[in-house]
C-alpha cells in the first residue's frame, strides 16, 4: 500500500482531535492551491485511524506538530507521551521552559501584538498615500506569513468580514488593531480590551504615571 494511503487518514484524525479539543479550526478557511495535503486529509476523513495527541497540539500543513500553533503545556505533554510517559493531559504537565527555546503560540502572540500595537503607536497622524498603501500591504503579507497558520487563517477571515485595515491616520489604525486583537481575545474566551485606552497602553503610558 502506498505511504499516502496510510498517513493521510492518521493526520486527518489528528486534525479532528486538535479541533475538538482546542476549539481552534485546524482546517484552513481558504485553502491555498499550494496546500493540497490538507484537501487530501479532508477527503479521507472517513478512513481515519484512531491515534491520540494531547489536548491542544495543532498540526502544521506538513502534518507535523506545529510549535507556533501549540501551547507550551500541550507541547510538553506530547513530548512526555513520545518519551514513554503516561501523561496525555496538558493540564497534568508543568513545563519549565528556558527563555531561549522556540516560542509557543502564546509567547509568539504576545511578542507579535507588541510589535503590531507599537507600529500603530508610531504610525503618522497624517500618513502619505504611500505609507497607507504600504501599511495595508504589510498587514496583508503578515496575515499570510504569521507562523501560527490557524491564527493566520482566522485573522484573514476576520479581515474579509468587513474588517479591512483602516489606515487613514494613527487613531484609526490603532483602533483597528485593537479591534483585531479583541476578535482574537473573544475567540479565546478572554476579556475584551477597552479600545478607548489603546493609546495609553501602547503609546503614551497610563495616566497614573506608572509607565514613567
Ligand atoms: C494575529 C494573531 C492571531 C492569533 N490567533 C490566535 C489563535 O487563533 N489561537 C491562540 O491560541 N492564540 C492566538 N494568538 C495569540 C493570542 O492572541 C495571545 O497573544 C496569546 O494567547 C497570549 O495572550 P496573553 O493573555 O498573554 O495576552 P495577549 O493577548 O498577547 O495581549 C498582550 C497584551 O496586550 C494588551 N491587550 C490585550 N488586548 C488588547 C487589545 N484588544 N488592544 C490593545 N491591547 C490589548 C494587554 O495589555 C495584554 O496584556 C494570536 C496572535 C496574533 C498576533
Automatic annotation (TrEMBL):
InterPro entries documented for this protein: ALR/ERV (IPR039799), ERV/ALR_sulphydryl_oxid_sf (IPR036774), ERV/ALR_sulphydryl_oxidase (IPR017905)
Residue ranges of domain ERV/ALR sulfhydryl oxidase in the record: 110-203
Cofactor(s) essential for the protein: FAD
GO molecular function: flavin adenine dinucleotide binding; flavin-dependent sulfhydryl oxidase activity
Alphabetized Pfam families for the sequence: Evr1_Alr
Keywords recorded for this protein, A-Z: Disulfide bond, FAD, Flavoprotein, Mitochondrion, Oxidoreductase
The UniProt record lists the keyword Mitochondrion: yes
Top-level taxonomic group: Eukaryota
Enzyme Commission number(s): 1.8.3.2
GO terms for cellular component: mitochondrial intermembrane space
Cellular localization per UniProt: Mitochondrion intermembrane space
ATP-binding in keyword set: no
Enzyme class at the top of the EC tree: oxidoreductase
Region (Disordered): 25-59
PANTHER family, sorted: ALR/ERV, FAD-LINKED SULFHYDRYL OXIDASE ALR
Protein name: thiol oxidase
Amino acid at each position: 500500500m502506498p505511504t499516502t494511503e496510510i498517513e493521510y487518514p492518521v493526520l486527518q484524525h489528528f486534525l479532528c482531535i486538535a479541533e475538538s479539543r482546542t476549539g481552534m479550526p485546524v482546517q484552513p478557511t481558504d485553502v491555498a492551491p499550494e496546500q493540497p495535503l490538507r484537501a487530501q486529509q479532508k477527503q479521507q476523513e472517513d478512513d481515519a485511524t484512531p491515534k491520540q495527541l494531547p489536548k491542544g497540539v495543532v498540526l502544521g500543513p506538513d502534518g507535523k506538530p506545529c510549535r507556533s500553533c501549540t501551547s507550551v503545556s500541550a507541547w510538553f505533554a506530547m513530548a512526555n507521551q513520545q518519551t514513554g510517559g503516561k501523561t496525555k493531559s496538558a493540564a497534568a504537565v508543568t513545563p519549565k521552559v528556558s527563555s531561549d527555546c522556540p516560542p509557543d503560540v502564546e509567547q509568539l502572540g504576545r511578542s507579535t501584538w507588541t510589535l503590531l500595537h507599537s507600529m500603530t503607536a508610531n504610525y503618522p497622524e497624517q500618513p502619505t498615500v504611500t505609507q497607507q498603501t504600504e501599511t495595508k500591504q504589510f498587514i496583508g503579507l503578515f496575515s499570510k506569513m504569521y507562523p501560527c497558520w490557524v491564527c493566520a487563517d482566522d485573522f484573514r477571515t476576520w479581515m474579509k468580514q468587513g474588517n479591512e485595515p483602516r489606515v487613514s491616520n494613527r487613531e484609526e489604525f490603532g483602533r483597528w488593531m485593537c479591534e483585531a486583537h479583541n476578535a482574537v481575545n473573544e475567540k479565546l474566551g478572554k476579556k475584551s480590551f477597552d479600545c478607548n485606552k489603546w493609546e495609553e497602553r501602547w503609546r503614551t503610558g497610563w495616566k497614573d504615571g506608572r509607565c514613567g
